[in-house]
Design a protein that fits this description.
The structure holds 2 protein chains of 2 kinds.
Chain A: E1 7-10, H1 15-26, E2 31-37, H2 62-75, E3 79-83, H3 85-101, H4 108-127, E4 132-134, E5 140-144, E6 149-153, H5 171-175, E7 177-178, H6 186-195, H7 217-227, E8 237-241, E9 246-250, E10 273-277, E11 284-287, E12 293-304, E13 314-319, E14 327-333, E15 339-348, E16 355-360, E17 363-370
Parallel strand pairs in A: 1-2, 1-4, 2-3, 4-7, 8-11
Antiparallel strand pairs in A: 5-6, 8-9, 10-11, 12-15, 12-17, 13-14, 13-16, 14-15, 16-17
Chain B: E1 11-12, H1 23-29, H2 45-65, E2 72-75, H3 78-89, E3 95-99, H4 104-115, E4 119-123, H5 133-138, E5 144-150, H6 162-172, E6 175-179, H7 191-194, E7 198-202, E8 213-217, H8 232-235, H9 243-261, H10 264-279, E9 285-287, E10 303-308, H11 313-322, E11 325-326, E12 331-332, E13 338-339, H12 342-346, H13 351-355, E14 357-361, H14 368-388
Parallel strand pairs in B: 1-11, 3-4, 3-5, 5-6, 6-7
Antiparallel strand pairs in B: 2-8, 7-8, 9-10, 10-14, 12-13
The chains are: A alpha/beta, B alpha/beta.
Chain lengths: 371, 397
C-alpha cells in the first residue's frame, strides 16, 4: 500500500511540469505522473486551413505525451495518460465556441483550469490513492492562520505569473495543490531541469490555445461547426461609428474582438478599433482608440479566494486580460451576485468574456467573468 | 522500472494483452541468434540449419492447426494475418461479412476496404457477446466473398460458434477467415472442423515472442500476399524469415498443446471462476458475457470481464496498478489512454458501464496466491473509489 503522501503531478510534457515532477521525485515524495489527454490534435487537421501536422510544444499532442512519458521514465516514476476528451469538449471547447458566436472573447485556459486541471485531476488523483496534486503553474499558495483561508499569490517570476488563469480555484482545491515553481524564476526552472538531466530543458514554451493549432480561432470555429454538422448562426450586421452612422456591413460578430484594429473592412483617415459588439442586433461599433477606454466593469460567476465574499466597497487592483498591468479600482457588490468595479483611470478595451482578476498587493482576492 | 515506494508484489492478470515467454521458449530460440544465424534461403550449411529449424517449426504448427505443413504460413503476427485475409481476398465490388466486435486489425482493414469500394456488413453480437450464426446467414449476398469472425473475443473471452459459421460459409460458397489470436492455446484447433480457409494467430498471446505469428491457409485459397519481394513461404509472404521467432512460436504452440491436454487450462478456468465468483459477490457488479439465464456463455478459460457500478474503470486500473495488480479496462489506444470498449458497446452496454468494466485475463502460470492477492486488493480499491467520487462515472457523457 502506498503511504498517505503520494503526490500526483500533472505532466504536460513541457519544461515546467517536468521540472516539478523531477523536484518532487528528488525530495523523496511518492510521485505519480498524470497527463490529461484533452483534445485529439489530428481531429480537425487539414480542414479550413488548420495545419495538417500538429506542432510540437502543444498540450495533448502525441509528441507531448511522449515527452512527458520520457521524463517519467527518466525519473522512474509511474506515469499514466488519463483521457478527458469528452469533458474537455463539453466544459471548455463548446463554451469557447458559444462565447465567440455570442460576440464575446473567451479564455479557454481558465475554464480548463476550473473544470479539468484542478477539479477532475484532483478527483483522479484521489481515486488512485494520491492526496495532493502538483502542477507547473507559476503561482504561490499558502495557508493563512489568521484568516483561516488558503491564499493565492503572484509568483516570484512576475513575467510568468499565471494567477490570472487560476482565480477560479476553490479553498478545497488550493488546500490540496502544490505549486512548486511559485518561488522560482523561469531561468531557475530551466537550470533545475538541466541539473536533473531532463532532455527537454530547452524546449520552448507553448503560447497558443492548445486545441487551436496555428492559433487561428476563426478557422477552428468553421471546422468545428462543420464537423458537428451545425451551421454558424447568421450574425452578419452593420458596422457603425459611435455616432450611430452606418459605415458598412460585416460577415459575422464572431470575427471581432473588442480592441481589434485589423480586418474591419472600412476605410478611415484615422485608425478604427472595435468598441462594442452587440450580440442581439449584431451591430459592431467602431471608433477611435480613445473611445476604447472605459471606467467601469461588471463581472459575474465570481470566485473569492482571500475573502469569504465581498460585502462592501474594497480597494483592489484589477487585471482584465493576461498581458494587462493591474489597475487601481474600487470594487463593490452588484446585483444578482455580480461585482461592479470603478477604475481610478479609464482602462482600454474591457472585453466581455475575458476574466477580471482582483488583486490586493500580491494576493488574489478573487475574480469573475467580464460581462 | 524503479517505481520507488509503490507496491512491489506484482500480479499480472492481463494475459490477453500479452504474455511472458516461458523459459523453454527462450531456450529454444537462443541458438538462432548467434550460433545458427543463417538465412534460410541460402544454399550453404548455415542457411540449411535455419531452413531445418523452420521446417521443423512448420511441422509443429501443422500439428497445432491440424493441417498440412504446406498450409502453414509464418508472418509477423495477428494484425498481419487479419490484414492478409481481408486485403488478400477482397476487391472492389466484393462483399465482406464480419462482426462489430472484431479486433481493430479486422475492423480497420474492413473500413479501408469499404473506402475502396468493397461492401461490408458488420454483424452485431447478442447481449451475451455471442454472434448469432443466423445473423451471419441473413447478411449473405450473392457477392459475399469472405466471412471473417473471431474465435475468442479479446475483451470478454466469449467463444464464437465458428463451426456453424463455417458451414454457412461453405453453403454460400464464401471464404471463411477466423481471427484466432485470442483462441490460440486456449481451445483445441482443428481446421477441418472449423471449416475455415484462413486462420490467424500470434505467438505472444501464448507465451511466445512478440512480432511473429502464423496463418493457416487452406490449399487452393487464392489469397494474395500483402508483402511482395522474395519467394519466401511459397510466395505467400515475402521477407527473410524470423527464424528465432518462428522457433519460439513453435515451442510455445507445443507447450500450449500440452497445457490443453494435461489439465493446465482446466486449472486456469477454476482459478478464473473463483476470482469471478468472489468479485461478483460485491454489490454493484456484474458479468459481461452472460446469457439470458445469467450464466456465462462459452468462454476462453482465462478471461472474465466485470462491470463495477459507480466508478471509472480507468481510475480503477491505475489504482490497482499502483497496488500491484495489472489488469485492463477498455481497448488501449495510441497514447496509452483508453476508449470505452467497442465490444462492450456493441453488446449493448451504455458508455458509463462500458467505461466501468475491467478485464481480468489470467496467465496459464497463474496461482491461487495470485487470485488471493487480487481478491484482497480489488474490493478495497473499488470501495475507496466509490467513496471518493460516487457519481464521477455518472457525470461523463
Amino acid at each position: 500500500m502506498q503511504k498517505q503522501n503520494t503526490i500526483a503531478v500533472a505532466m504536460s510534457g513541457g519544461v515546467d511540469s517536468s521540472t516539478v515532477a523531477a523536484m518532487l521525485a528528488q525530495s523523496g515524495d511518492q510521485v505519480v505522473g498524470l497527463t490529461l489527454q484533452l483534445w485529439d490534435q489530428t481531429r480537425l487537421a487539414g480542414k479550413h486551413g488548420i495545419p495538417d501536422a500538429p506542432k510540437a510544444g502543444r498540450c495533448c499532442s502525441l509528441d507531448d505525451v511522449y515527452d512527458a512519458r520520457r521524463v517519467a521514465e527518466h525519473l522512474g516514476i509511474p506515469y499514466y495518460v488519463v483521457k478527458q476528451e469528452e469533458r474537455f469538449e463539453q466544459d471548455v471547447v463548446r463554451p469557447f465556441v458559444r462565447e465567440y458566436l455570442a460576440g464575446r472573447t473567451p479564455i479557454p485556459c481558465s475554464l480548463c483550469n476550473n473544470h479539468l486541471k484542478f477539479d477532475q485531476l484532483l478527483k483522479t488523483a484521489r481515486s488512485i490513492g494520491a492526496s495532493r496534486i502538483a502542477t507547473g503553474h507559476y503561482a504561490v499558495n499558502e495557508y493563512d492562520e489568521r484568516r483561516g483561508r488558503w491564499i493565492l499569490k503572484r509568483p516570484a517570476d512576475l513575467a510568468k505569473d499565471q494567477t490570472y488563469f487560476l482565480f477560479g480555484l476553490t479553498q478545497e482545491q488550493l488546500a490540496h495543490t502544490l505549486f512548486p515553481l511559485g518561488r522560482l524564476t523561469k531561468p531557475e526552472v530551466r537550470a533545475q531541469a538541466r541539473q536533473q538531466g531532463l532532455a527537454l530543458a530547452e524546449k520552448p514554451d507553448s503560447q497558443e490555445i492548445c486545441f487551436i493549432p496555428g492559433g487561428d480561432y476563426k478557422q477552428f470555429l468553421t471546422a468545428y461547426l462543420e464537423e458537428q454538422g451545425e451551421r454558424a448562426p447568421e450574425t452578419a450586421g452593420e458596422l457603425v461609428a459611435s455616432s450611430g452612422e452606418v459605415l458598412g456591413r460585416h460577415d459575422g460578430i464572431s470575427n471581432f474582438t473588442v480592441g481589434q484594429r485589423k480586418g474591419l473592412g472600412v476605410a478611415s483617415p484615422s485608425p478604427l478599433y472595435v468598441l462594442q459588439i452587440d450580440p442581439a442586433s449584431h451591430r459592431v461599433t467602431v471608433g477611435a482608440d480613445a473611445e476604447l477606454a472605459t471606467r467601469t466593469l461588471r463581472a459575474r460567476d465570481l470566485n473569492w479566494i482571500s475573502i469569504p465574499t465581498l460585502t462592501g466597497p474594497m480597494r483592489v487592483k484589477i487585471k482584465i486580460r493576461h498581458r494587462h498591468e493591474p489597475a487601481w479600482a474600487t470594487l463593490e457588490p452588484g446585483a444578482e451576485g455580480e461585482a461592479v468595479a470603478t477604475f481610478d483611470e479609464p482602462q482600454r478595451a474591457v472585453t466581455p468574456g475575458q476574466s477580471a482578476v482582483f488583486y490586493d498587493g500580491d494576493e488574489v482576492v478573487g475574480g469573475g467573468w467580464i460581462i | 522500472m524503479a517505481h520507488g515506494g509503490f507496491q512491489r508484489v506484482r500480479v499480472y492478470m492481463d494475459a490477453n494483452a500479452t504474455t511472458p515467454l516461458l523459459p523453454e521458449v527462450v531456450e529454444a530460440m537462443h541458438p538462432y541468434w548467434i550460433e545458427h544465424f543463417g538465412n534460410a534461403s541460402s544454399i550453404h550449411m548455415e542457411g540449411q540449419r535455419a531452413r531445418t529449424a523452420i521446417d521443423r517449426a512448420r511441422e509443429t504448427m501443422a500439428g497445432f492447426f491440424n493441417c498440412h505443413d504446406a498450409e502453414v504460413v509464418f508472418n509477423s503476427g495477428g494484425t498481419e494475418g487479419d490484414n492478409t485475409a481481408l486485403f488478400g481476398l477482397l476487391r472492389p465490388g466484393d462483399h465482406l461479412i464480419t462482426t462489430s466486435i472484431e479486433h481493430s486489425a479486422v475492423l480497420q482493414a474492413a473500413h479501408r476496404l469499404a473506402e475502396r469500394g468493397a461492401e461490408v456488413t458488420f454483424v452485431d453480437p447478442l447481449p451475451s457477446g455471442l454472434i448469432d450464426p443466423e445473423a451471419v446467414r441473413n447478411a449473405l449476398r450473392p457477392n459475399t466473398r469472405l466471412i471473417s469472425v473471431m474465435l475468442a473475443n479479446n475483451e470478454t473471452g466469449v467463444l464464437q460458434p465458428v463451426q456453424e459459421i463455417g458451414k454457412i460459409a461453405a453453403e454460400a460458397g464464401a471464404f471463411f477467415h477466423i481471427d484466432a489470436v485470442q483462441g490460440a492455446g486456449k481451445v483445441p484447433f482443428d481446421m477441418r472442423q472449423f471449416g475455415c480457409h484462413l486462420l490467424s494467430i500470434s505467438a505472444h498471446k501464448m507465451h511466445g515472442p512478440k512480432g511473429v505469428g502464423a496463418m493457416f491457409v487452406r490449399r487452393g485459397t487464392p489469397v494474395e500476399s500483402l508483402l511482395v519481394g522474395g519467394s519466401h513461404e511459397r510466395r505467400r509472404r515475402a521477407g527473410t524469415e524470423n527464424v528465432a521467432g518462428i522457433v519460439g512460436l513453435a515451442k510455445a504452440a507445443e507447450l500450449a498443446m500440452q497445457s490443453l491436454e494435461d489439465g493446465t487450462m482446466d486449472r486456469v478456468a477454476a482459478l478464473r471462476d473463483r476470482l469471478e465468483r468472489e468479485i461478483l459477490k460485491m454489490p454493484g457488479t456484474g458479468l459481461n458475457g452472460a446469457g439470458e439465464d445469467g450464466m456465462p456463455v462459452p468462454r476462453a478459460a482465462n478471461t472474465t470481464n466485470i462491470w463495477f457500478d459507480q466508478l471509472e474503470g480507468e481510475a480503477l486500473v491505475i489504482a490497482l496498478d499502483l497496488k500491484g495488480v495489472a489488469v485492463s479496462g477498455g481497448s488501449a489506444c495510441h497514447s496509452g489512454a483508453t476508449e470505452p470498449s467497442h465490444v462492450l458497446l456493441a453488446m449493448g452496454l451504455n458508455k458509463n458501464r462500458a467505461r466501468a468494466s475491467l478485464r481480468f485475463s489470467l496467465l496459464k502460470t497463474a496461482t491461487e496466491a495470485d487470485v488471493d492477492h487480487v481478491l484482497r486488493v480489488v474490493p478495497e480499491a473499488v470501495e475507496h473509489l466509490r467513496a471518493i467520487s460516487p457519481v464521477a462515472a455518472g457525470t461523463l457523457g
